[in-house]
Amino acid sequence: MVDFMQLTIGEIVANDYRAATIFKSFGIDFCCDGQRTIPEACASKQNDPELLISLLYGVLKTENHEPFDYNSWPIDLLADYIEKKHHRYTRERIPLLLKFFKKLSKTEAELYPEIQTIHELFKTSAEELLVSMKEEEAVLFPYIRKMIKSSDGKKKIGEQHLGIAEASIRKILQDHAQEAKIFRKIKALSNNFMAPEDASNSFNVAYTLLADFEKDLHKHFHLENNILFPKALEFEAGFQSTSK
Fold it and tell me: Which residues does the UniProt record annotate as the domain Hemerythrin-like (predicted)?
């Protein structure tokens, strides 16, 4: 039986993404603060770690219906998947959400002033996300692919390039932490993405889209923070040790 007390939250979710549902229900950040253990996370939220672990065992003992075992993928494949699925989704949804909240800021802000703040927060988040993803696609992901090719003997990586993953990932993790902070504010302001009962259809659609966006962002950050980045750093460390 798995000893959940000894694993970090990120490791638990990396091994089985269904665990994310339990952590979400306890208000525990698994994607951008996954380096904590369950007792550490529960202490900050005043949750019962034994209850959380019993729920984990209950959920994870059933057959896993997650279609992909991301933890077993080669890191270049995982980078490709993140870029083509999550980066593409993010770029497609940002203009749509900005359009909705721009409209709501004009039509609903008098009754619901929080809409204006949500709009501004999301604009900031979107701008930073686009910059961070561009950095990944221009620097980190190509470097990961280059490391894989070099390990196969197809291409030399060059000692002057070693350390790129560590430097790039350090910056991206800071970006992710900032994004998570912004979305916690948005979630609180939007009453957990619940529109008022008398809200317009546009209001309801905007909040539904925003909830979907946050859900995808959590999966996106989880795949990077808890699986891709640690493996890329481990891979790079192997090159650095052999170059000495």
Answer: 84-232
Q: 170 lies in a domain?
A: yes
Nearest to 100 by CA among 190, 167, 12, 13: 190
Name residue 182's amino acid: I
**202 and 239: one domain?**
yes
- Whether 68 is covered by a domain: the verdict is no
Q: Give how many domains the chain has, as a whole number.
A: 2
Q: What is the rounded CA–CA span in Å between residue 213 and residue 194?
A: 14
| pLDDT at position 155 | 60
Q: For 196-242, write each residue's pLDDT tens digit.
A: 888 888 899 999 999 999 999 999 999 999 999 999 999 888 866 55
Residue 117 lies in a domain: yes
Cα 83 to Cα 170: distance, rounded to the nearest angstrom: 19
Residue type, 65: H
Task: Give the rounded percent of residues in the chain with a pLDDT score beyond 90.
Answer: 62
Q: Within 10 Å of residue 72's Cβ, how many Cβ atoms?
A: 9
Is residue 15 in some structural domain?
Answer: yes
- Which residues touch 167 (CB under 8 Å, ≥6 apart)? none
Straight-line distance from the first to the last Cα atom of the chain, in angstroms, rounded to the nearest whole number: 40
The Cβ-side half-sphere exposure at 22, using a 13 Å CA radius, reads 25
Q: How far apart are CA 48 and CA 96, in angstroms?
A: 40
What Rg do the C-alpha atoms of the chain give, in angstroms? 20
Shared domain for 78 and 54, answered yes or no, is no
Q: Output the pTM of the full model.
A: 0.87
